[in-house]
Specification:
Layout lengths: L8 H5 L32 H14 L10 E7 L2 E6 L2 E5 L2 E3 L6 E2 L13 E3 L14 E5 L3 H12 L4 E4 L9 E2 L2 E2 H7 L13 H6 L16 H7 L2 E3 L2 E5 L2 E4 L3 H25 L24 E3 L5 E6 L3 E2 L29 E3 L16 H17 L6
Parallel strand pairs: 4-17, 6-15, 7-8, 7-15, 8-11
Antiparallel strand pairs: 1-2, 2-3, 5-16, 9-10, 12-13, 13-14
Length: 386
Amino acid sequence: MLERGEVANSWRRERWDSLRLLTPNWQSRLPGYPYGGNDPDGFMTMPELIGRISAFAAAASAPVRTHTTVTSVSRVDGGYRVATDRGELRCRTVVLASGAANIPKVPALSAAVPPEIVCVTPFEYRNPDQLPQGATLVVGASATGVQLADEIRRSGRPVTLSVGEHVRLPRSYRGRDVLWWMEAAGVWSQRYTEIDDLERARRLPSPQLVGTPGRGTLDLNVLRTAGVEIVGRLGAIRDGCALFSGGLANHFALADLKMNRLLDTFDEWAAGHPSEADVGPPERFEPTRAPPRPNLSLDLRRGGVRSIVWATGFRPDYRWLDVPVLDRNGELRHDGGVVTEAPGIYAMGLPVLRRRRSTFILGAEDDAREVGGELARYLASGAPGR
C-alpha cells in the first residue's frame, strides 16, 4: 500500500480545523473494526478520525509505505510498472484507491477575479482568521459550502452564498438521524446496476448536512435567517462584477421536491417495518424560502468583498496514470471498480462505485470484498502472460 504522505494524509492536511464527519460515529465502521466508543450518535472531529484510521491500519498490520508518491503507472509484460519517488515496483494487479477528491474544481471564470481579492479553496482554508476582514463570497452550496458560509458568518464577516444545484436533507427525521434512514430503508445499499442514470448519480453534490454536537440542520433557510445573503449560481465575472443566474427559485423547488420524495421512501419503509421503525410520526419541512428579489450582480470591489471561497467541488487526479482508461472529463472508466479496458486494474472509493454509500466510510467493506473478489478471480484465471 503506497501513501504519498502519512496514514490518513488527506484528513490531516486537506481539511479545515473545525470539520467533523457528516456521518454518525456508529457508521464509521471499517472491516472487522466497528465503532466502540461511548458516543455512537456523535460526529468525529478530524483528530478523532485520524486516530481511528491510524489505529485501524495498526490493528490490520497494513503494509503501508508512507511518504511514497506514485509518479506513473504503466503497462509492462505480465502486469504493470509503478514508478515512485522511492523506487519502482512491478505488479500483476493495481488498485487505484486515491479517491475522487484530489484537486479542487475551480471554474475558469475565477481568472477574472480582481487581483486584490483573496481566493481560497477548501483544501487551503483552515479557519476564518486567515481571511481578510470584510465580506466573503462563498461559491457553492453543498455540504462544504454551507458549512464554511456558516463558520465565516459566525466570525463577524458578511457572507454571500452563491447557490446552484444542491441536495437538501434534514439532519434528523422522525426522531432518527437521516443517515440512519438512508441505511435502514436500503437507499444506501442500492447497487450501481439498479440506478437508471448512473452517470448523474455519480455527479450529485454532497447533501447539505453538518455534524455538530447539537445535531442541528444547516440548510439555506437557516443560513438566510442568520444573515447570509443567498444569490443564484455564479455565471460570470465581468469588469470586477459577479453575475448570478436568475434560476434560484427553480433550484430551491427541485431540491425540496427530491427531499420530499426521499422522505416518502422513508415513510413507506417505516410502514412496512413497524417493529424496526420505533420512530415518531411523519414530518414535512418548510419549503426553502427564496429571497423576494435576489441580487443578480455584485460589484466585488464596491461591495466590500475581500475574499472568495471556491466550494465548487473536487475532481480526481490521474496525471500519473499512463494507461488510456480515462474519459474526456478525466474520470476513470470502470464497471463497478473493474477497469475492463486494462485487465488487472481496479478502483476503490469512487462515487457510487458499487452502491450509493461507496464514498462513505461504512461503504468501504462491502466494496472491498467484491472488488477484491474480482481481483482474486483475475489472478487465478491463468490468463496468458500472467
